[in-house]
UniProtKB/TrEMBL annotation:
Organism: Mariniradius saccharolyticus AK6
PROSITE patterns, A to Z: PNPLA
GO BP terms in the entry: lipid catabolic process
Motif extent (GXGXXG): 13-18
Sequence ranges assigned to domain PNPLA in this UniProt record: 9-167
Motif (DGA/G): 154-156
Name of protein: PNPLA domain-containing protein
Length: 267
């Protein structure tokens, strides 16, 4: 294979579990593999946007560790959510200063769910931050995000592994899922039952798209971490890194995707 192939990577949503994507990217980069087109949903979209804007996986991890995400949320006076994401825009602007897809070093597609039309929508041009907020807008927790008279919620609701923007465009597609569920012999309470059921639903729409991927990387057991369990971010990063290192060892054909320049490929 030629190292000049168009290499696409789709990153799933999963709250703080999405930090695993950064570990995966670090391992791929160390192996000389630099995807040149990204697609992401929810946490995967956020990780992808920061990476595509020029931040390294380690720098993004540090941003997450030093940011108190909850101080950027405020109560919502609404029947559609208990929190508003308005102040999150301020946080994004700090690290995505140009606020446009066109300003990114690597092309990116962000997935969100249009509530009224009940369909997944893929954003890839124009304003970047609003689609990112929409893509990670957990239904019931956050007020939906209004973009061009349409209300959007978390992209993972309908498509938690958005390979569609890459399929037919890229020569090789890599999928990364950060919500692997281990076998559970004892459901302790209603909270764990609901959480597990939600993740099962998300994984179903991930696995239904797995066949599109030439390579599929899935760190094991990450679903045991909560959506906002930022204290475990380093552990999650390491889990993604170690899984990807082993994946490369077990699948040496992926090394045929190595970049000639040994750095990120840009548009």
């Amino acid at each position: 294979m030629s190292s000049d192939l168009k290499i696409g990577i789709a990153l799933s949503g999963g709250g703080v579990r999405g930090v695993a994507h950064l570990g995966v990217l670090k391992a791929l980069n160390e192996s000389g593999i630099f995807p040149n087109r990204f697609s992401g949903s929810s946490a995967g979209a956020i990780a992808a946007a920061l990476y595509c804007s020029g931040h390294t996986p380690e720098e993004i991890l540090e941003i997450i560790l030093k940011t108190n995400y909850f101080k950027f949320l405020k109560p919502a006076i609404s029947w559609t959510g208990i929190l508003k994401m308005d102040l999150v825009e301020e946080l994004y602007r700090k690290y995505l200063t140009s606020n446009s897809f066109e300003s990114l070093q690597i092309p990116l597609s962000v997935t969100a769910t249009d509530v009224r039309r009940a369909k997944a929508v893929y954003f890839s041009e124009g304003e970047l931050i609003k689609p990112l907020m929409a893509s990670s807008c957990i239904p019931g927790m956050f007020d939906p995000i209004l973009i061009d008279n349409h209300y959007y919620i978390d992209g993972g609701v309908l498509n938690n592994l958005p390979v569609e923007p890459l399929d037919g465009v890229c020569d090789v597609v890599i999928g990364v899922n950060c919500n692997h569920l281990p076998v559970e012999h004892n459901i302790k309470n209603i909270k764990s039952l609901i959480e597990r059921s939600i993740i099962m639903t998300m994984n179903y729409n991930v696995y239904s798209r797995k066949h599109v991927c030439d390579y599929f990387i899935e760190p094991q057991g990450l679903a045991r971490y909560g959506v906002f369990d930022t204290k475990k971010a380093k552990d999650i990063f390491q889990a993604g890194y170690e899984t990807a290192v082993k994946f490369v060892e077990d699948n040496p054909s992926i090394l045929e995707l190595k970049s000639k320049t040994g750095k990120k490929k840009i548009k």
